[in-house]
# Entry
Amino acid sequence: MTRTPLTDVACSIARATDLFGDAWTALIMRDVLSGVTRFDDIATDLGISRKVLSARLSRLVEEGILVRERYRERPPREHYRATAKGEELYPVLLALMNWGDRWYSGEDGPPARVHHLSCGQDTTPVTVCGHCGEPLTVGNTTQVPGPGGRVGPGTRVLGPLLASRRPA
# Structure
């Protein structure tokens, strides 16, 4: 089945999920950001085919999310490291982890915890307002049009709705 590309949709969520929307990519980034950086280790950890892993890693390198670095010359061996762009996916993964822990962790509890090195405490990630620090929820936020917004594929209904919410 051919997937419809979302790169031209005037929506940052659509554009991001065009790259990041399959489970393998999220799990590859989870592994790399957690310290599993070698191709064979990622393949073993995820149980993913080498062909699929190679394609996903190539795309992540092409997009500037990961870089391939040589760590041994003989025999030549490389591993993957997140760029600044890739490291900025960490809060996205934490949000998915937090949601999954809440709704799918089961009786045994979450499979992993987030430990904040600065304060020494286990923590739960929270998305907050960059101005006042209040947690953001669907009930205390709304989306309004941005400078790159337009009506088109993927925003034929949403675009006009956001336009009707223009702040005074």
